[in-house]
Amino acid sequence: MIWKPNVTVATVIEQDGKYLLVEEEPEAGAGLFLNQPAGHLDPGESIIQGAIRETLEETAFTFVPEYLLGVYQWHSQRVDTTYLRFAFYGRVTDHDANRGLDDGILRADWFSLDEIRQNIQRHRSPLVMQCIQDHIAGKRYPLELLNRYES
């Protein structure tokens, strides 16, 4: 058997001192978690396209990536799964208030850094806070680092 991590994308979006997060219930009965707009890469899409799509599906905002924030490997003991997360920083433009959000997403909202820290026990993973800390620390990598090839 060949082991493969789950490839995911996430977006860090800060506006007026607040960060856009989603409140989600990933599995029935698992509880409510806070996360960046994030999800699995779909077949046939680029990593950047996945980040744009996931943000729209989970928040109803159009995401414009500005740079790669980082690549993170994390093993969840709770579900015994390893994730390889590509996190992006960028801005949002349009918002479609009539658009429904993905299954399991209760709401998308803006949270201050203090609110995020106060709710750390509700973070979906330690990557939520790590990505925000990396943004605050000024970590930035050009989008050109990511190349997609098809044959």
Structure overview:
It is built from three helices and seven strands. With 151 residues, it is of the alpha+beta class. It has one domain (6-145): Nucleoside Triphosphate Pyrophosphohydrolase. It starts with 5 loop residues before the first strand and ends in a 15-residue tail after the last helix.
Q: Whole-number radius of gyration? A: 15 Å
CATH class: Alpha Beta
CATH superfamily: Nucleoside Triphosphate Pyrophosphohydrolase
Q: Structural class of the secondary structure composition?
A: alpha+beta
Q: Globular, elongated, flat, extended or rod-shaped: what is the shape?
A: globular
Uncertain spans: none
- Order of H and E elements: EEEEHEEEHH
Q: Provide the CATH topology.
A: Nucleoside Triphosphate Pyrophosphohydrolase
Q: Which bin fits the share of residues in helices?
A: 10-25%
Our measurement of the CA-to-CA distance between the termini, rounded to an integer number of angstroms, reads 25 Å
Share of residues in strands: 35-45%
Taking the sheet with the most strands, its summary is: 7 strands, mixed
β-strand number: 7
What is the CATH architecture annotation? Alpha-Beta Complex
Q: How many helical elements? A: 3
How many domains would you count in the coordinates? 1
SSE diagram, text form:
Elements: E1 6-15, E2 18-24, E3 33-35, E4 38-40, H1 47-59, E5 61-76, E6 81-95, E7 105-112, H2 113-118, H3 127-136
Parallel strand pairs: 1-6
Antiparallel strand pairs: 1-2, 1-4, 2-3, 2-7, 5-6
